[in-house]
């Protein structure tokens, strides 16, 4: 379905005037184009529907043929065809098209017209057809619908009320009506309808709809009981197990939640909903990043999941380096870590095109590391001098709300954003080169030793991101991160290192990091008490030994 509108679009009244002029001249196809455009701009305006009726009368066949469905059909034409089908006695087909328009542009009130909200429509449709329409609406709507968008679904809720009034004991209709009511914030009504539905026709889906309604009403104990009854109806529907586990976890009952998700995995270890929920709950249980890395691996290896999941993004949101930058640490005194940094020539400023692309991408937050990697592909065609130039000569903040906040409150954070995204861009440089001897690895490892702690952390984050998306590089990246952390920990024994907590969080986001380094990172991040200083000294002695490269190719410069 095509939008078919732009900034030059005429107001609905002008489109109607052009439609009437074409209609008077007998140019029906031309008139249909203007009516469709007017419908797209004002779908409930009575004058638009009056003109559509005149066009239908003039066409001789009800006007349906003037609005054919093609591969890319303008949404206004789809809605016009829907109204004409209803007028021709085919309301079910018309509703299907209105729902398609709602899925395409959910904020427009496509269905807010008398024939949809009339009680007669519910009688003509029958309960099964009405339930099917409501299911289509629910599939097209978010759960829950944002309050600002609920007006556009009011006509469908009226249709549900009318249908339930005519068919008060139809279980499927009551369940789908409850699902719609819940989505648009009518929770008490959703509970009543779902309760009537399971009494009229006990079923798995009836109990699921009832459980969801009760959960939205805050009646958790009853919601869980309904979902358990749904499992009794169909023990093989593992999505319900995941719902039960998620509900239990949301209310602090993590052990029970894990038990339910393990039951689901025992039945099918690769069922996507169960796998996503299991990794999320395990991470909530012990905070170990290996669960999130395992989930990222599953997502990469199973691109055709049954539906979109947000578990990985929810777990990474707001967490240092997993989902956002850490605050900028005060600059350290040169040589504070006990070794000089590499001496490199200062790169030239980046090109205007490189600055423009980075300005469009740079942001202090991302859904999760693989998503950051994917977003940085927009920098893939930049050459190496441009990417290095961005690190040293960051462009001005963008002329956006984010840019205004960063420039007005924390300009240093913008520089940090630029460094992080430039380094992510380096991950896409010459990807045809094998990792061990690649330019991208050599440059990032070199940058990771930079005395500028911010640039060094940005390079390390890029390396960690590479490990998230490519399991084959994980041993190498873990070794680089462990060595860097050990050096910082050694320096911290002599004097404070302001960047140590941030680097520690970066280490904790690293796949396949050895257990001793994880414990050291937890110490430096302040996640463990100071009662094990002897253990920390032992870890330092072990980690500060020279590390031999685990991958073939030249050693880091």
UniProtKB/TrEMBL annotation:
Region feature Disordered, mapped onto this chain: 326-355
| Pfam families given in the database record | TPR_19
Return the InterPro entries for the record. TPR-like_helical_dom_sf
Q: What is this protein called?
A: Tetratricopeptide (TPR) repeat
Species of the source = Micromonospora phaseoli
């Amino acid at each position: 379905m095509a939008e078919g509108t732009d900034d030059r679009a005429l107001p609905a009244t002008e489109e109607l005037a052009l439609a009437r002029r074409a209609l008077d001249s007998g140019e029906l196809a031309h008139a249909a184009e203007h009516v469709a455009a007017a419908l797209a701009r004002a779908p409930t305006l009575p004058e638009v529907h009056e003109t559509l009726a005149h066009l239908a009368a003039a066409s001789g066949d009800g006007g349906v043929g003037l609005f054919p469905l093609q591969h890319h059909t303008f949404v206004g034409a789809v809605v016009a065809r829907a109204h004409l089908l209803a007028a021709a006695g085919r309301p079910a087909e018309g509703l299907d098209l209105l729902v398609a328009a709602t899925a395409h542009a959910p904020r427009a009130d496509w269905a807010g017209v008398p024939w949809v909200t009339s009680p007669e429509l519910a009688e003509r449709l029958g309960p099964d057809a009405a339930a099917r329409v409501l299911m289509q609406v629910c599939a097209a709507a978010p759960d829950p619908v944002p309050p600002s968008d609920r007006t556009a679904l009011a006509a469908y809720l009226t249709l549900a009320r009318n249908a339930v009034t005519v068919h008060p004991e139809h279980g499927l209709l009551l369940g789908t009506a409850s699902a719609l009511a819940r989505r648009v914030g009518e929770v008490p009504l959703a509970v009543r309808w779902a309760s009537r539905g399971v009494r009229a026709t006990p079923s798995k889906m009836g109990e699921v709809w009832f459980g969801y309604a009760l959960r939205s009403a805050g009646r958790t104990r009853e919601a869980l009981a309904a979902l358990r009854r749904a499992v009794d109806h169909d023990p093989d529907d593992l999505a319900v197990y995941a719902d039960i586990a998620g509900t239990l976890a949301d209310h602090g009952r993590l052990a029970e939640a894990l038990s339910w998700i393990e039951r689901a995995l025992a039945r099918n270890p690769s069922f996507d909903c169960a796998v996503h929920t299991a990794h999320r709950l395990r991470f909530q249980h012990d905070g170990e990043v290996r669960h999130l890395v395992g989930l990222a691996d599953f997502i990469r290896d199973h691109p055709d999941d049954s539906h979109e999941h947000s578990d990985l993004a929810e777990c990474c949101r707001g967490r240092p380096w997993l989902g956002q930058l850490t605050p900028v640490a005060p600059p350290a005194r040169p040589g504070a870590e006990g070794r000089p940094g590499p001496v490199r020539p200062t790169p030239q400023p980046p090109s205007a095109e490189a600055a423009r692309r980075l300005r469009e991408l740079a942001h202090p937050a991302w859904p999760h590391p693989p998503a950051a990697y994917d977003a940085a592909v927009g920098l893939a065609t930049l050459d190496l001098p441009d990417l290095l130039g961005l690190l040293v000569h960051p462009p001005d903040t963008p002329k956006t709300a984010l840019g205004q906040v960063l420039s007005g409150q924390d300009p240093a954070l913008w520089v940090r954003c630029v460094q992080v995204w430039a380094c992510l861009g380096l991950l896409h440089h010459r990807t045809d080169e094998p990792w061990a001897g690649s330019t991208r690895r050599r440059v990032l490892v070199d940058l990771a030793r930079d005395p500028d702690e911010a640039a060094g952390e940005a390079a390390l984050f890029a390396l960690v991101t590479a490990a998230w998306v490519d399991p084959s590089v994980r041993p190498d990246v873990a070794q680089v991160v462990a060595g860097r952390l050990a050096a910082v920990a050694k320096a911290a024994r002599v004097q404070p290192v302001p960047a140590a907590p941030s680097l520690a969080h970066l280490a904790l986001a690293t796949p396949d990091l050895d257990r001793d380094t994880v414990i050291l990172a937890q110490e430096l991040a302040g996640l463990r008490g100071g009662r094990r200083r002897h253990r920390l000294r032992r870890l330092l002695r072990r980690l500060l030994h020279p590390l031999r490269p685990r991958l073939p190719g030249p050693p880091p410069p």
